[in-house]
Amino acid sequence: MQLLYNNKVVIFDRTDFGASNLSLPAGKCRYNDEALGVDCTAHSILYDILSNTYRPLMVQTDVWCSSGAVDSNGTLIQTGGYHAGDHKIRVFSPCYDDDVNCDWTELPQNLTVQRWYSSDHLLPDGRVIIVGGRRAFSYEFFPKSFNNNDNDVFDLPFLKETTDPKEENNLYPFLYVLPDGNLYIFANRRSIILDYVNNKVVKEFPVIPGEKRSYPATGSSVMLPLRLNSPKNLTVEVMICGGAWGGAYIEAMEGVFWPASSTCGRMRITDPDPKWVMEDMPLGRVMPDMLLLPTGDVIILNGAGNGTAGWENAVDPVLNPVLYKTNEPDHDKRFIVLNPSTIPRMYHSSATLLPDGRILVGGSNPHVRYNFTGVKYPTELSLEAFSPPYLATQYAHLSPIIMAVEGQILSYGQKFSITFNLGYPGEELMVSMIAPSFTTHSFGMNQRLLFLDILEIERVSVFGYNVTVFAPPSKNIAPPGYYMVFVVHQGVPSHSFWVRMQ
């Protein structure tokens, strides 16, 4: 899934399981399919949040277990996949109408090596870095590097070092661009800082205690919010939750499902001597999704209580989302178990934050084929929306209503004001800015939350207010592109407003 700035979500799945239940528009078919001679069905959709409708899209090659990032223009850059798709680069640009020509485009340019189970991140210079993948212990860029070498691929021995025999446990590495412009990379139980400009590892961190955290021992991760009231002394903290013990994948293949990890680790990577601080979740999870909420808290949802990622490799779906209160000083009060879904969301499920503060959740296909009956956990085609506690009716009067934002295109460090209405003002007010994630396999790539520095708040009418804030100071802190801006009042966010940093 990827939310775009026109409030539509691109969703897609593999192409080589045969026909889907959704037809492409008349005259559109694929003739290069591995499963069918001719395939005139859709394996991607564009979901319109506001109208709750969708239309079919057409991908040319297999996008199974691929990766992606939205570039500075708001175009989804989607990379790799399976078999005929493993070297491919595809793009999807936002559009505001139902023009059938608004669809996926597969570029003639290819990736240098196959990328299957890799991770992507938008960089401060506007390129996308593509890291790792199965049997791909390297990284590359799109567009290619600036030194005119058309086949730039850079070895990263760290990825080979973190591969476990028979299990791997280092796929879909967690990536974060840091305020100094370098890249934090986590795989298996280890993490480093990579200077990708000079192809040099500049720091290695302590090993996280406990279980493995990367696919197929799949945990999840976020970089906790960056608070920009003192950008020269930013604290950068990474959080990783869930996973599975080494050997769990092999055992699951034999029908033995070990309990999933119930631990989370937080590490301030900007500390002089960084260390993991471990906490216990109320519910163990493998294959969780972790998403940053506009309040700065974290929602943890989806996944299973036993086993690992992979076909038929997990049991006991965890139906209750958990809210993690990031800044709660009492460790015993940080995790709050929330109301459950009734739908198991296991392997190949996904989730993303929506502009109104809800979480869109969809999918689950833990089988070799699409099995809708006769199995313990059927293939799931539904979408549902989860409303965090801040959307409860009793808090509606606390929610700001954004009326206007001064300038939708922002320069770095620029002052700008947000006009909003508020019926019952309190003292606690924050402005958060979120880059939406490309979510697959329990990791929200490019997810990023910034709390903007507030200059002043003034009352302009009975219910009207202006808050003046500073845009992020640099491309390292906020890579160029589109962000959702929320006004958060006493822990209750507004509907967001899209801005573009450039």
UniProtKB/TrEMBL annotation:
Keywords from the UniProt entry: Signal
Species this chain originates from: Anisodus tanguticus
Residue ranges occupied by any Galactose oxidase-like Early set domain in the UniProt entry: 400-501
Name of the molecule in the record: Galactose oxidase
Signal among keywords: yes
Keyword match Transmembrane: no
Record-linked Pfam families: Glyoxal_oxid_N, GO-like_E_set
InterPro entries given in the database record: Gal_Oxase/kelch_b-propeller, Gal_Oxidase_central_sf, Glyoxal_oxidase_N, GO-like_E_set, Ig-like_fold, Ig_E-set
Domain Glyoxal oxidase N-terminal: 1-390
Domain of life assignment: Eukaryota
Cited CDD domains: E_set_GO_C (cd02851)
